[in-house]
TrEMBL record, chains A, B, C, D, E, F:
Pfam families: Tautomerase. The lineage of its organism: Bacteria, Pseudomonadati, Pseudomonadota, Betaproteobacteria, Neisseriales. The keyword Zinc-finger does not apply. This is Tautomerase. It comes from the Bacteria. Residues 2-64 form the 4-oxalocrotonate tautomerase-like domain. Belongs to the 4-oxalocrotonate tautomerase family. It is an enzyme of class 5 (isomerase). The keyword Isomerase applies. It comes from Neisseria lactamica. Keywords: Isomerase.
Amino acid sequence: MPYVNIKVTGGSEAPTAAQKAELIGGVTELLARVLGKNPETTVVVIDEVDTDNWGIGGKSVSERRKEGR
Amino acid sequence: MPYVNIKVTGGSEAPTAAQKAELIGGVTELLARVLGKNPETTVVVIDEVDTDNWGIGGKSVSERRKEGR
Amino acid sequence: MPYVNIKVTGGSEAPTAAQKAELIGGVTELLARVLGKNPETTVVVIDEVDTDNWGIGGKSVSERRKEGR
Amino acid sequence: MPYVNIKVTGGSEAPTAAQKAELIGGVTELLARVLGKNPETTVVVIDEVDTDNWGIGGKSVSERRKEGR
Amino acid sequence: MPYVNIKVTGGSEAPTAAQKAELIGGVTELLARVLGKNPETTVVVIDEVDTDNWGIGGKSVSERRKEGR
Amino acid sequence: MPYVNIKVTGGSEAPTAAQKAELIGGVTELLARVLGKNPETTVVVIDEVDTDNWGIGGKSVSERRKEGR
C-alpha cells in the first residue's frame, strides 16, 4: 500500500520511458524487500520538473547549468 | 481551509474540464458536509500524470495498458 | 488508480475516525462516479496539520483562532 | 536541508523565469534568516497548475476568471 | 538533486529506524544507478501515516485490518 | 491562491511557534511582492519531519548528526 513520489529534473534531462520503468520496478522491489509491502498495491508517481522550476542553493537549476554546475 | 490534491492518469485518459469541475465541486461539498469546512477557503489541485510516470504493481501504467490491464 | 491527499487542521479540530472513514468512502465514490475509476486501487491519505503549522492570509491558524476567526 | 514546494496557477498566469528565480532566492534566504538553514542544501520546486485544475470555493479558477473574479 | 517522498503506514506497522535507513540508502542508490544522480544532493522524506488516515478500496486501513485484510 | 509546503527537520530541531509564524508571514509576503498574489488566499503548510525520516546523501539526518554533520 505504500505511495512513492519521485521528483527529478525534466526537459533535456528527463528520464526515458525505460528508465522510468526501471525506477518504478526498483523502488517497488525495495519496499517489498525491506518492509514486506505488497507490490500489487505499491503506487509510484514520477514528476519531471523543468530546470527553471527547481532551485537549490538559492538558484534555479537552469542558472546553475549555465554556470557549468 | 482544507487542501486537497487529486492525482489521476492524464494524456488520452485525462479528465475533461467538465469532469474536473465536477471533482472540484464534489470534494469541496464533501468536506463541508462531513467536517463543516468553509467552501470559500477549500483549495483543490488536480494533477494529471502521464501513464509512463505512474506505476503500480511494479510496472508503469503504460506497460499495464499494453498487457490489456 | 487515483491518489488523493486531504490536508485538514488537526489537534482539537481533528476529524474523528468515523469522519475520516466517511471522507475516504466519499472521495473514492466521487472518483468512481465522475471518472469511472476503480475503487479497489483508489488510495486516500489524510494529513492532520497542527494549527501552528497552517497559514492563511499571512498568519497561522493558531493566531487567527485567537483573533476569533 | 529544507524542501519547499510552491504551487501557483500556470498557463497565461504563469510566472516568468526571472520571477521563478526570485521566488527560489527569496524563500531560500527566508529559511536561512529565520531558521539558520544552509542555503546550499535548500531545495525549492515550483509547480505551475492549469486554471482548469485548480479549485477554490467549489469552482475551478477557469470558471472564476470567466465570472470576473 | 532528486527528491523522493515515501509514505507507509505507521503506528504498530511503522518501520524501524534501521529499516528507514535502508530505504533511504536503497532509493538513493537506485537513482544514482539508473539516472546517474548525485547521491550527495538526493533528498528522501518518509511519512508514516496512521491506519485511520490511509484509505484504499473506499475503506480505511484500520477498518480493513479489523476485517482481516 | 498559491499553496506553499515547507518541510524542515523536527524534534529537537523543530522551529518554534514564533519562527513558524515568521515563515508563514514571510513566504506570503514574497508571493505578494514577486507575483502580486492575494495574501488572503495564500495557504502555507509546514511539515516537521523526524531526523530518522529525512535522508540526504544516502543517510538519515539522525546518522549524519551522530557523525557530527
